[in-house]
Write a structure and sequence with these properties.
alpha+beta
Length: about 220
């Protein structure tokens, strides 16, 4: 039987005008979900972690998730220069929701969820400075300056909040993992390979030579 271990699971939520909200795990911003509450996202992450990691013995992949984080909201201000053509958009400042979380060993992690940004903070007290620099680099890298549509993507996201829940994940012993891998292989083999047909082997033009070999082996 697996041993269940509680792990913290933090996810960011963006407000919307209806009950549907945009959510994604803080440590996995590339996987957004549209749902009314966090339960669907939590179930999906739990199932994916068990199927793709825990049942394959890839426990080390979950080490980043095992660290409990205490998030503090900060304001991240990005200064956007005027578009080079002089009329596409003026110079402006955009305020984004950022979060910093200290680490037990020193330093911390910083996040700007609307940009999918995560940054290591050598000093938590300088977290805003680091995040603002990372945000400016993101704006340049994704061509937001001079592109009103890309700017609106960020400005229209709405307020962001981070919530942390507890996941009870099943951790299997090495013997259990080996057994599951064996059963998986047995199920997949008929789908990817065809069992060779039996019967007496046949040759063409070499019957006499093969007959001599078979008699010698008899």
């Amino acid at each position: 039987m697996p041993h269940f271990v509680p792990l913290p699971f933090a996810f960011a939520t963006f407000a919307s005008r209806d009950r549907t909200r945009v959510m994604f795990p803080v440590l996995y911003p590339e996987t957004p979900w549209f749902c009314a509450d966090g339960e669907r996202l939590i179930r999906a992450f739990r199932d994916a972690a068990e199927r793709h990691l825990l049942r394959r013995g890839r426990l080390s992949a979950l080490l980043p998730d095992a660290t409990p984080l205490s998030f503090r909201r900060v304001a991240v201000r990005v200064a956007v220069p005027a578009a080079e053509d002089g009329w596409t958009h003026p110079a402006m400042e955009i305020d984004l929701d950022g979060f910093v979380a200290p680490l037990a060993g020193g330093g911390g992690l910083g996040f700007v969820p609307v940009l999918g940004l995560e940054a290591y903070l050598p000093k938590v007290e300088r977290g805003v400075e680091v995040l603002e620099q990372a945000a400016r680099q993101e704006f340049v890298r994704h061509g937001r300056v001079g592109n009103p549509r890309r700017l609106v993507e960020v400005m229209a996201a709405g307020a962001c909040a981070i919530e942390t829940r507890t996941l009870d994940l099943p951790f299997y012993s090495p013997a259990e993992v080996a057994g599951m891998q064996t059963r998986t292989t047995e199920r997949l083999l008929p789908e990817v390979a065809t069992e060779p047909a039996g019967g007496e082997p046949r040759v063409f033009g070499r019957e006499e030579e093969v007959g001599g070999v078979l008699r010698a082996l008899a």
